[in-house]
Amino acid sequence: MAQVEIRDVRHAYSTKAGPLPVLDGLELSVPEGDFCAVVGPSGCGKSTLTRLVAGLMKPDEGEVWLHGELVKGPRKTVGMAFQNPVLLEWRTILDNVILPLEIVAPSMPRKDRVARAMELLDMVGLSGFENKRPSELSGGMRQRASLCRAIVHKPDVLIMDEPFGALDAFTREDLWQTMRALRQAEPFTALLITHDLRESVYLGDQVVVLSGRPARTQYVLDVTLPADRPLDILYTQEVGEMLHVLRDQIKIAQGRPVEGAA
Ligand SMILES: Nc1ncnc2c1ncn2[C@@H]1O[C@H](COP(=O)(O)OP(=O)(O)OP(=O)(O)O)[C@@H](O)[C@H]1O
Question: Which of 40, 84, 193, 237 could bond to 44 as cystine, CB 3.0-4.6 Å?
């Protein structure tokens, strides 16, 4: 059973100019514990896809299944991380990370919540910063805390919309490694929206390329790399070839010519 299953989803937004078709026959299947990266042209409907999986929107047609259940409304059992970490300034880092447990597991004793949050903060290198306020941390550290908050309650799926997009290149690469280390320590199912093809290959078990709007599933790349991925793997010929394929697929999605194509 796939953990996330999207079946022939179609959706249009109502706009003043009439319906705007955004998704048209989207199919996606993410097995439990897998990491699915989604790429596609700007404005093709990637964020719309995250809202559908989180149950924040219902599709006009088609079905979204999560952990064997049809998604009919907002779900507590998803974790979300965005480009802007949106941490609450009046709470410490520890209390920000604990927040989902207060909602999902209200009867859990505080000492257990603290232990769970500290375990994650330690894994991402933030132990010692738990009593700081968000504004006292760097952007990369805030995003680390936000990732801890997104998985603290062991969600059915971690949904991320460009979580590393605002970070500088070195911090971003650090966070990629943190993400892989987190997954090795504690496997979770993830759906990542990104514009960065290297990121999609480094983090993904599969990379789904969406077509231009209205988006459908245009291409799926199986990332056949070992689970243990040093950053240097991005400079191998194997990854170079994967990136080449993805770049061509994005060009096709954008309706641009592909070099060497007949
Ligand atoms: N609530 C809404 N009402 C009307 N149109 C919307 C709404 N939300 C998004 N859109 C439009 O739907 C299209 C898809 O939006 P979406 O944010 O899903 O795309 P995206 O692929 O995530 O974009 P980007 O790559 O630029 O982040 C865009 O043209 C957007 O303007």
Answer: 40
Asked if residue 48 has its Cβ within 6 Å of ligand 1, the reply is: yes
Question: Quick check: 222 and 236 in contact, CB under 8 A?
Answer: no
Query: What pLDDT, on the 0 to 100 scale, is given for residue 165?
Result: 87
Using CA atoms of 104, 106, 111, 117 in order, give the dihedral in degrees to the nearest 10: 20
Ligand 1 closest atom vs CA 40: 21
The verdict on residue 172 lying in a domain is no
CA-nearest of 203, 159, 195, 197 to 177 is 203
Q: Name the residue with tokens 């968000």.
A: 134
Residue 262 banded pLDDT, cuts 50, 70, 90: low
Q: Report how far residue 132's alpha carbon sits from residue 142's, in angstroms, rounded to the nearest whole number.
A: 11
Indicate which atom in ligand 1 lies nearest the CA of residue 49: 18
Structural domain range at position 218:
1-75+156-163+185-262
pLDDT in tens, 87-145: 999 999 999 999 999 999 999 999 999 999 999 999 999 999 999 999 999 999 999 99
Domain count, the chain: 2
**22-62 pLDDT, tens per residue?**
999 999 999 999 999 999 999 889 899 999 999 999 999 99
- Specify the residue with its C-alpha closest to ligand 1, atom 25: 42
Strand partners, 222: 206
Ligand 1 in reach of 107 Cβ (< 6 A): no
In angstroms, the CA 141 to CA 134 distance is: 9
Q: Are residues 66 and 10 in the same domain?
A: yes
Ligand 1 lined by 15 (C-beta under 6 Å): yes
Q: Quick check: is 255 in a domain?
A: yes
Closest to 99 measured CA to CA, from 84, 88, 111: 88
